[in-house]
Amino acid sequence: MEYPSFFLLLLLTIIAFIAVAGQPHNNITLSSYLTTDTAGVTDLSWLSPSGNFAFGFLPLPTNTSLFLLAIWFANLPNTTTLIWTPNRHRPLPPKSSVFLTSDDGQLSLRDPTGTEVWNPGAPEASYAAMLDTGDFVLAASDGSVLWNSFSDPTDTILPTQTLSPGTEIVAKLSDDDFSNGRFKLRMQSDGNLVFYQIAIPTGYQYSPYWAANFLVPNSRLVFNASGSIDLISPSGSVLSTLTSATTKSSSDYYHRGTLDYDGVFRHYVYPKKTVVAGGAAEWLLMDFSPIDICQNLITTPGSGACGFNSYCSYDTKQMVACQCPVGYSWVDPNRTYMGCKPNFTMPSCISRVPGEGFQMVRIEKLDFPTENYDQFNPMNETDCEQQCLDDCLCAASVYDGVGNCYKKKFPFSNGRKGNYVSGVAFIKVSNNNNLPSSPLSKKRTWILPDSIVLVSSVVLNFIIVSVTLIYFHVSKRKQKHQLNDNVLGPNLKAFTYKELQEATKGFSEELGRGACGTVYTGYLCPELTGTPNLAVKQLRDFHPDIDKEFTNEVKSIGETQHKNLVRLLGYCNQDTKRLLVYEYMSKGSLASYLFSKIRPPWKQRVEIMLGIARGLRYLHEECTTQIIHCDIKPQNVLLDENFNPRVSDFGLAKLLKTDQTRTNTGIRGTKGYVAPEWFRNSVISAKVDVYSFGVMVMEILFCRRNVENEMEEEKALLTFWVSDCYNDGRIDALLEGDEEAMADMGRVERFLMVALWCVQEEPALRPTMGQVMQMLEGAVAINPVPPSL
Length: 789
What we know:
Blueprint: H1 5-17, H2 19-22, E1 28-29, E2 33-35, E3 46-47, E4 53-60, E5 63-73, E6 82-84, E7 97-100, E8 107-110, E9 116-118, E10 127-130, E11 136-139, E12 145-148, E13 156-157, E14 162-163, E15 167-174, E16 177-187, E17 193-198, E18 205-211, E19 220-223, E20 228-232, E21 238-244, E22 253-259, E23 265-271, H3 272-277, E24 284-289, H4 293-296, E25 311-314, E26 320-323, E27 328-330, E28 340-342, E29 358-364, E30 366-367, E31 372-376, H5 381-389, E32 396-399, E33 405-408, E34 415-417, E35 424-430, H6 439-444, H7 449-475, H8 485-488, E36 493-494, H9 497-503, E37 510-513, E38 517-522, E39 534-539, H10 547-558, E40 568-574, E41 577-583, H11 590-594, H12 602-622, E42 637-639, E43 645-647, H13 652-656, H14 687-702, H15 713-716, H16 718-727, H17 732-735, H18 739-742, H19 745-758, H20 769-776
Parallel strand pairs: 25-34, 36-40
Antiparallel strand pairs: 1-10, 2-7, 3-4, 4-5, 5-6, 7-8, 8-9, 10-11, 11-12, 13-22, 14-19, 15-16, 16-17, 17-18, 19-20, 20-21, 22-23, 23-24, 25-26, 27-28, 29-35, 30-34, 31-33, 32-33, 32-35, 37-38, 38-39, 39-41, 40-41, 42-43
Helix pairs in contact: 12-14, 12-20, 14-19
């Protein structure tokens, strides 16, 4: 289909420059304003001439004491359909106002204190108008458009609206949360129309999950009055049709195209005759794209359409339906995109009996297509189920129906369920979930009568011995307090000292030592395997009176679960012995890797910095109880088999000291990484970790230690040398022939600026770890430049 070039040019000219003159409107004069009163209702709104559209304040459906400045369909019965809002991320309280100022002709949204919240940046307007197209415009005296809402859309577009190159719409977060959500549609400058999933809250953009794949520069997405939404080339040809509802004329129906919170762009219509008759109707879904987001949206890294440990399908209204597997429940039932959590404690490799206490739940036509950690071929369905049940690392397995079996670790991602899936998934759950057992589980529970008698005898003897020991233990007044799993939670195993002696072969293989204690290599089954799988830290200088603090801290650390933290598996608190049991990291410490003769690859260093930042953000901002590490350094960052960084020893500052404000010989931390407030009588906060992280970023960037006494004086302290080089514009002098990093100077400079902000002497000047992540990922600008040290 071809549009005559002169017609397209005329159409765009009308839309962009003389929309005010071409549409009936009531001028909104300078000094006009709208406000909300203290009763929580809107005083007034500005209507289009037909009354179809309104511009003003709308109360949030979930909290009527907060308001959005918005445009909406004003005359639809029993429904309020929002089209546009500029303050979706910051709803305002009563007595907020929007002004068309008389002195400089600007539109200004202000909170009750008079502070400006939003301004479109179009001064010298002579008047404003709410048009019958649904567009709100600021116009000059000659009628030319200075700014309009169509050029700055939220999540919805209307007939006659055009998305120009570089324009995007962003879905809301959920059905009742209008803040920026997880999906966006972007009209790119290269001419391609692309859908992206974006991370919350940073805005990180994953790979596209749908694209028109037409690369004609300066193409536009046009919502035609005929009812189709087309990708139009500069010559006027239709490259692609996104959606179409041409069977419903705009004279009889209202139209809107919305990128919904589930990532699907939908074209809706609403019958006008219902409005005229005073009746009620619903928005009718006419078309949508992509056709099946469950198949289209796969992100790596990322959780997929529905979050971790869940799966995506469609309901009867063609809305994405996210579901939890049997044995799992929503992390937040009101925010299902956050995924699902198990209703049981995940299996632990500490157990010596694989599969004990668990069963597999079979779900037809379910697949988790990414993040396999093992694959078998050929293998049948039954063996695929058994393989996962017997593997302490396996949370789910997928059989594809043609002889392939895939194992998944927790959490599993990108789940999708539908007739297009030919295989079956098996989800590992606890036997205590009262679930119907699979045939395999039933087979495994059949036991001979003689075995029952034997087991009963053993259990009875065990109970008698246990009761006797407990009574003897309580009666001995000098016996020390013992922790138990009920106190510390089900995620941790309480080891005896003898068990850990055996696991460490008598504490014979030392991994490292520090101020807190010594770490030894451990083995789950030392008699069967020579491969280490535990790291046992024996703490020193503990006093029995701090058992309560030890309990609280071990419990809080045991509940942490993040891919960039070394996981605490268990503990020992026997008499005065205190030991912590961690998972073993096969690649050793970051210090050993970073400060060797061979410089690690640049991209790997970038991922290590980002991973450490994510781990610290989790400890500071995402844990139920904030955990301050207090000794961030390369020696306390371990690397797994894939060189992913894992922060270790987190929380031991609280374990080992009851007074974190002492600054003399009790200073926690390591020379060169210690924040200045340790040397003052100041309250210690999470900003001490931010300081240490900044030092470590410099070390990772330039592959040298923070303190090098053998170097010339100006280079001996890395932080000061980096600050001097940055201020003198000599960043290249820091890289010393690192060609990979020099080829990515933009990111080097960004990371360096973040590090310099982190090591500011005053804690208040340092960013939080959440802000650090945003700056490292480029989601926010780093402004102003960091002060000199």
